[in-house]
Design brief:
This protein is 57% helix and 13% strand. The chain is an alpha+beta fold. Among the domains are: 146 residues, no CATH class; 55 residues, SH3 type barrels; 82 residues, 2-Layer Sandwich (Alpha-Beta Plaits). A hairpin with a 4-residue loop joins strand 9 and strand 10. Helix 4 packs across helix 7.
Length: 427
C-alpha cells in the first residue's frame, strides 16, 4: 500500500512539521475534514433515508458502520496518490499520513465491533470485547506515534517458545496468529449468520429443509474458518492427522450425549416430524416451537416461559403435537347443573353460546355432552374446536367458561355445590 512505503511519523516529526510549515499542515487538516464530509455524504446517499436494521455497513448512526471509515480511507488514499503524482505533496506529509493510518485502525475497530454485534445479538460480553478491541487498537496507535512500537515488536519477537526439537514460536507470532484466528472465526460466524437469515426468509412450509441447509452451511464455514485460522496460530495441520484417531475415540466416549443431540437435530429437521411453529407438549410442558438448533429445541409457552429441550429427548420420548397434521385442536371444559334441569333446552342454548365465542370454529361444531352423573349434579362437558392453539388455549377456554356462566345466570340455572345430609339417630 502507498502509505506503507514511508516510515510512520512520530510526535517529534509531526511537531516539527507543524512548526516549519503551518500553512501546509492546515491545508492537510482541512483536506482531511473535507474528505470526511465527502465520505459521509456518499454513504448517506448510498444508504437512503431509512437506515436498515442491524446493518454492518451503515450501522445505526451511519458513522458507526464499516462503510463510512472504508469510504473515507479510500478517498484519502486516492487523494494522496493523486497529489503525489501531481507533485503537490512530495514526500507524503506527516499530518495526512497520520490521518490515513488512523482511518485504517478505525476500519479495524468498526469491522470487529459491528460483526460481533450482528453475529452475537443481545450478548452482554460483546460490549466488553468492543471496549477491549478499541483500547488495544488505540494503544497501538499511541505506541506508533511515540515511536516505541518497533521496540515493543522487537521485544515480543525475542520471547520465543520451543516447539519440538527444532522449531520455535515467538510471542509476537502467537499474538498475530491469535488475532488472525479471532478475526477469521468472527467473520465466518457473521457470514454464516447472513446466509442463515437469507435461507430462513421464506415460506413456513419449507422451514425445516432451509434450517437443515443453514445448519450445514454454518458447520461447513466454521470448519473452513478453523482450517484457515489454525496455521496462522502456528499449529501444524499434519499433527492433527496424527492425533485425530486418538482424539476421535476420546470425543466419542466423552461427548456421546452432545453427538446424539446434534444427530437428533438433523433427523428432526429432515423428517419434518417437528417444525418451527408447531404447538407441542413434552414432559408436561406445552408451547410453540420457536427454534430448532443443532443441539436443542426451544419451546415457548403461552405465558412467555421458554424451555430448552435437548434434541435427543424429542427422538426418544413421546411428543404430543397439536399442529402436525392439522392445526385445529379440540378443547373441553366441564360444568355441573342441578338435577332436574331441562337438558333438552339447555344443551342447544349452550352450544349456540359457545359457537359465538371468538376463536371457536364453526366446523367441527361445538357440542355439549352429558358426561357423568355426579353426586351433586349433572356433569356437562362442553367440547369445541380452535385452529390457532399457538395463541394460548387458556384464554379461549376462559372465554367459553364466561359465556357458559352468563347463559346459566340468565336462565337462573344453579351450579350446585357439595351438599351432605346428616341424620342423627334418636336415643
Amino acid at each position: 500500500m502507498l502509505i506503507n512505503l514511508y516510515p510512520p511519523p512520530t510526535l517529534d516529526v509531526l511537531s516539527k512539521a507543524l512548526q516549519d510549515d503551518t500553512r501546509q499542515s492546515l491545508i492537510q487538516i482541512a483536506t482531511a475534514l473535507v474528505l470526511l464530509g465527502a465520505a459521509w455524504l456518499v454513504v448517506r446517499l448510498w444508504r437512503g433515508k431509512e437506515a436498515p436494521a442491524n446493518s454492518v455497513w451503515f450501522g445505526d448512526q451511519l458513522i458507526d458502520g464499516v462503510l463510512f471509515p472504508v469510504m473515507a480511507l479510500a478517498l484519502s488514499i486516492f487523494t494522496q496518490y493523486g497529489l503525489l503524482r501531481l507533485g503537490v505533496w512530495n514526500p507524503p506529509v506527516p499530518v495526512f499520513l497520520v490521518f490515513v493510518q488512523m482511518l485504517m485502525y478505525l476500519v479495524l475497530i468498526r469491522l470487529s465491533v459491528r460483526v460481533l454485534e450482528t453475529a452475537f445479538p443481545n450478548r452482554g460480553w460483546v460490549k466488553t470485547v468492543e471496549r477491549t478491541v478499541s483500547w488495544m487498537v488505540w494503544a497501538v496507535i499511541v505506541m506508533w506515534l511515540t515511536g516505541v512500537l518497533p521496540d515493543v515488536v522487537g521485544e515480543l519477537e525475542a520471547v520465543k517458545f520451543p516447539i519440538g526439537d527444532k522449531n520455535e514460536l515467538s510471542l509476537m507470532k502467537i499474538l498475530i496468529g491469535g488475532l488472525t484466528c479471532a478475526i477469521v472465526l468472527v467473520l465466518t460466524l457473521w457470514f454464516s449468520g447472513v446466509i442463515e437469515r437469507r435461507l430462513l426468509d421464506g415460506p413456513a412450509d419449507e422451514m425445516s429443509m432451509r434450517k437443515i441447509g443453514a445448519n450445514l452451511v454454518r458447520a461447513l464455514l466454521i470448519f473452513i474458518g478453523l482450517i484457515i485460522a489454525m496455521p496462522a496460530v502456528g499449529i501444524d495441520m499434519t499433527t492433527l492427522s496424527v492425533l485425530g484417531g486418538g482424539l476421535g475415540v476420546g470425543l466419542g466416549f466423552g461427548l456421546q450425549k452432545v453427538t446424539a443431540n446434534y444427530v437428533s437435530g438433523f433427523v428432526i429437521l429432515a423428517e419434518g416430524s417437528l417444525r418451527i411453529g408447531d404447538v407441542v407438549k413434552i414432559d408436561g410442558f406445552e408451547g410453540r416451537v420457536t427454534d430448532i438448533a443443532t443441539r436443542y429445541t426451544v419451546i415457548r409457552s403461552a405465558g412467555g416461559r421458554e424451555s430448552v429441550v435437548p434434541n435427543e429427548m424429542l427422538i426418544s420420548q413421546r411428543v404430543e403435537s397439536l399442529s402436525l397434521a392439522d392445526t385445529r385442536v379440540q378443547l373441553t371444559t366441564v360444568v355441573q347443573v342441578a338435577y332436574g334441569t331441562d337438558l333438552d333446552v339447555l344443551r342447544p342454548a349452550l352450544t349456540e353460546v359457545i359457537r359465538n365465542v371468538p376463536r371457536v370454529v364453526a366446523d367441527p361444531a361445538p357440542n355439549v355432552l352429558l358426561s357423568a352423573f355426579q353426586a351433586d349434579g349433572l356433569e356437562l362437558t362442553c367440547a369445541f374446536w380452535i385452529e390457532d392453539p399457538d395463541k394460548s388455549t387458556s384464554l379461549v377456554r376462559s372465554d367459553v367458561n364466561l359465556a357458559v356462566l352468563a347463559e346459566l345466570t340468565r336462565r337462573n340455572i344453579e351450579i350446585p355445590f357439595p351438599q351432605r345430609v346428616v341424620r342423627q339417630a334418636q336415643a
